[in-house]
Write a structure and sequence with these properties.
Helix content is 38%, strand content 28%. The protein is of the alpha/beta class and 318 residues long. The chain has two domains: 220 residues, P-loop containing nucleotide triphosphate hydrolases (Rossmann fold, 3-Layer(aba) Sandwich), CATH 3.40.50; 67 residues, 2-Layer Sandwich (Alpha-Beta Plaits), CATH 3.30.70.
């Protein structure tokens, strides 16, 4: 397949990976257009990392096919690795090397040398805000600086596509936002990005999403499409003084699609908000729970994700 003739950065058809009797990835099919940020969401153990490792050519599929940048993941894995960048949750940095030594090492690994390496290092140091810290040991950097350096090592060879596996886990919110600003810049420059994340605010900013549960894709589309198609009801947001007692009381009514805690607030998904509002007030009032507010709000991606996961769990364990 000639990658120049193909507008899809990734195409997977019934991709499957089994480990003995356990099916980690179960006949999934999806595509990612070039230049797009594609979010891959799912709980731990859902099959996200296994999928990425197959696309990178690090794991051989049990069945199914896939191509990355027009190259078959089994037959042309070496060609794929020349053209992609990969960043794992652990950042894959050498802590006993300096910032510049890490860049030199990864540049050499990808065959970036001489003037091109010097130019790329200048760009990455400026991008990551690490100018003037080239000789600092990597182990002395904070989590946010390490994260941006790791991104720099992953793009030092100017890859066409980036695979990011939980890249913002354990990083503070300010550093997460700065990191995503860098990703948007890369995507605007034409880099395709596939990212796994469990932060729903990040997922909202992806152009396309796929939810994976127990190795199967259960939802796909843009954030707006998924919310429109998969949200079975409206969301009532409840502020009360005893949410730990309110949640079981509301679930006992058996009327709602979902009842879940969001920080100190409760989200109730219902198809009949006007009819159910007085029932909520009565149920909580009978238990001495003081309600501050009940507001109808637009569903968030997290509402959809939790409701979808609950439905899948019920289907799996009826």
């Amino acid at each position: 397949m000639n990658e120049r003739l193909n507008n899809q950065a990734v195409e997977a058809q019934r991709l499957t990976k089994q480990f003995d009797s356990f099916t980690a990835v179960d006949h999934i099919s999806f595509s990612i257009p070039r230049g797009q940020i594609f979010g891959f969401l799912g709980p731990n153990g859902a099959g996200k990392t296994t999928t990425i490792r197959m696309l990178l050519g690090l794991l051989r599929p049990s069945s199914g096919t896939a191509s990355v940048l027009g190259f078959d993941i089994v037959k042309s894995s070496e060609e794929i690795r020349k053209r992609i960048g990969y960043m794992s949750q652990k950042f894959s940095l050498y802590n006993d090397l300096t910032v510049e030594e890490n860049l030199n090492f990864y540049g050499g690994t990808y065959g970036v040398r001489g003037e091109r390496l010097r130019t790329r290092k200048q760009y990455i140091l400026r991008m990551a805000g690490l100018e003037g810290r080239e000789r600092e040991l990597t182990k002395n950097l904070s989590g946010g600086w390490k994260q941006r350096l790791a991104l720099g090592t992953a793009i030092i060879h100017e890859p066409e596509m980036l695979f990011l596996d939980e890249p913002t886990a354990g990083v503070d919110p300010i550093s997460r936002r700065a990191f995503w600003n860098l990703l948007y810049e890369l995507a605007e420059g034409g880099t395709t990005i596939m990212v796994t994340t469990h932060y729903m605010d990040e997922a909202e900013h992806c152009q396309s999403l796929a939810f994976i549960q127990r190795g199967r894709l259960v939802e796909m589309g843009s954030p707006q499409e998924i919310k429109a198609q998969e949200m079975h009801g409206q969301v009532l947001e409840i502020a009360c003084d005893q949410p730990n007692l309110a949640i079981p009381a509301l679930r006992q009514l058996g009327l709602f699609e979902e009842v879940a805690l969001y920080g100190a607030l409760i989200h109730v998904v219902t198809q009949y908000p006007a009819a159910h509002r007085p029932l909520i007030e009565r149920a909580l009032g009978d238990r001495g729970i003081d309600i501050s507010t009940i507001d109808s709000i637009a569903p968030s991606l997290e509402d959809v994700f939790i409701a979808s996961a609950r439905r899948q769990e019920k289907d799996h364990n009826p």
